[in-house]
Amino acid sequence: MKIMQMPLGPLQTNGYLIHNEDNRAIMIDPGGDGFKVLEVLKEKGLTLEAIVLTHAHFDHIGGINEIREEVNVPVFVHEKEKEWLTDPSKNGSGKFPGLDLISVNGEVETISGEETLKAGPFIFSMLETPGHSPGSVSFYMPRENVIFSGDVLFQGGVGRTDLPGGHTDTLLSSIHEKLLTLPDETIVANGHGPTTTIGEEKESNPFLNGF
């Protein structure tokens, strides 16, 4: 399995293109610039089979329509944020001047709970990690030793909680109860900035000390 980090959209949000040796692929959080994702798929000869969302803020969903105009694939989002995909006031694109209003076209697949998600050829353990948003989900792949955390946990930081549905105590509980219990060597592939590890954040993240 190979993972390609792709900064996309107005905030250069980290999207992740994952593919296997059979050239089957999925995309996590295409935040914008869908044409770039399509170009990479073509260049590498990959077949996109699904789009998976850690949450439904505008900077994580902005490339969906452009991608699905070319490749009709399912989109997976937590049930608590399904309506956000078509509501700019909830996904945030209607709150920041100068941004295009974002409304995702087409049907989506809702997910919830802490079971497994099969997206294309890949299987994830789903961890509900609310706090940054009500339906934030982190996707863990223990064999590959990586968790896709969206905007929950960053290198030296945590997700903001001043947007609709955000809650600081809930976020910190999610991090401590769901993420920091993973092996220290687990790679945290997050939504903004460089990747980190669970062990590194336990040791040095100033937002987590003293919680």
Automatic annotation (TrEMBL):
UniProt cross-references to SUPFAM superfamilies, sorted A to Z: Metallo-hydrolase/oxidoreductase
Cofactor: Zn(2+)
InterPro entries listed in its UniProt record: MBL_Glyoxalase_II, Metallo-B-lactamas, RibonucZ/Hydroxyglut_hydro
Classification via Pfam families: Lactamase_B (PF00753)
Keyword line: Hydrolase, Metal-binding, Zinc
Domain Metallo-beta-lactamase: 12-192
Gene Ontology MF terms: hydrolase activity; metal ion binding
Name listed for the protein in its UniProt record: MBL fold metallo-hydrolase
Species the sequence originates in: Alteribacter keqinensis
Taxonomic lineage from the root: Bacteria, Bacillati, Bacillota, Bacilli, Bacillales
